Every structure is written in C-alpha cells, then in structure tokens.
C-alpha cells in the first residue's frame, strides 16, 4: 500500500512539474533499472512533444539561441514549459526582432510559457498560464560596463525583485513572495532602462497583445501609461521581476 501511494505521489508531482514526467514514471515502473528507464522515457516523450504539440495548437519557443529570442533557462525546456500558441510565438519573435533592430545586440528572453498539451492544464505556481496564450518575459539588465545580453539576476529569471512602493499588505495570503533571504545573493545588476522602455512600447503597440502585467512603480518609472499595462492584483505573484504578456 505504501509503495502504491508513493508511486502515485511521484506521478502527481512529476505531472504537475512537467506534464509528461508522470507518464514517464509509469513507463519506468515496468523496468528493473527504474531511474534509467525514467530518464530515457522522459527524454523520448519530451522530444516527441516537439512534433506532436502543433497538433494540439502549441509550438515550442527556442531553447537555444535563436535570432533574437530564447528561453532564459534550460530548466524551463527540461520541464516542457516553453510552449505557446502560434500567434503568441509570432508576437514574441516579432517583438524580439523589433527591439534588436532598435537597440542592436538585444537578446529577449522568455521565462515560463505553457505545457505542450491541453487547454486548462495548470502551470504551477502561475494562476493563468493554462492555455498557451500567456508568457513571461525577463527584464533587460546592465552593469557598469553596459548592457548584459541575455543576463538575469537569478538563474531562472524570477525572484530577483526590483523593490518599490506598493499598496499590498505583506500579511494577506497570496503568492506575493518577498523572498528577502534570497535578494542579497543576486548580482548587482540594474535594469537597462532604454531597453525596458522600448520593450513596453513595442508590446503596447502590438494589437495582438491584450494585457501586460508589471508592478505599478515600474510602470511609472518607465513612463508606460497605456491602459494595456495593468496591475495583476495583490493576491498574485509579484511582477517586479518579469513582464507578463497575454493575447
């Protein structure tokens, strides 16, 4: 009984993390060398998803350097979280090319997007990334030497917050983590303001983009006054470490 519950728990956790991991574990249960079988099954399923996902209305964003667009961390690709609908893929590629044309050398990086299959399948811990129509963009950073192409303050792009005024209470239950214990570990990069401003202008100008979420103090800082740019609310995750966009 304990073994069955343990395997069920593993299946649930792996499925929630990567969508395909639970299925790979079920396949591996039929083999003596379970870990090796799991790795092989998971790799095979993940690679197959690249060709199968378009039949479910999803397409993969580039995991290695494309022309101007790439997933920020290989972890997102390892967990099959680099999928979007074709229209959002076009938006992101057009946006990255536009920023690179305006500011040569710019690399636009994507954080979490969505899984390859099924509308409504949750992408934890996000509240809304369940249909392939949303994606998170990494901020652009610089140091004393200038713009840092593709750099992020944290390995995955999240949780390196740009502190500023907020009306949200720290005592209310929400996903609005402060993670103060982590902040001193990140490199001392600053936001590249020309690129941040150009990115917000580009996204606002694209009629295919419906909403953009970023913290109000950053919206004010970058003089981004469009009604498309909104506050996500106090019960959602902070958006002073990334830009959320959706069709």
Can you describe what's shown?
The chain is α+β, with helices and mostly antiparallel strands. It has two domains: 1-56, no CATH class; 58-246, Muramoyl-pentapeptide Carboxypeptidase, domain 2 (2-Layer Sandwich). It contains eight helices and eleven strands. The strands form four sheets. It has a four-stranded mixed β-sheet, covered by helices on one side. β9, α8 and β10 form a beta-alpha-beta unit. α1 (2-18) runs antiparallel to α2 (21-28) and α5 (86-102) packs across α7. The longest helix is centred in the first third of the chain and has 19 residues, at 34-52. The mean pLDDT is 94.
How is the topology of this model organized?
Elements: H1 2-18, H2 21-28, H3 34-52, E1 59-60, E2 69-71, H4 74-78, E3 83-84, H5 86-102, E4 108-110, E5 134-138, E6 141-143, E7 146-147, H6 180-183, E8 190-191, H7 193-205, E9 211-213, H8 216-221, E10 229-230, E11 242-246
CATH architectural arrangement of the largest domain: 2-Layer Sandwich
Task: Quote the CATH topology of the largest domain.
Answer: Muramoyl-pentapeptide Carboxypeptidase, domain 2
Low-pLDDT runs of 5+ residues are: none
Instruction: Give the CATH class of the largest domain.
Output: Alpha Beta
- Binned, the helix content reads 25-40%
- Count up the domains: 2
Radius of gyration: 19 Å
What is the count of β-strands?
Answer: 11
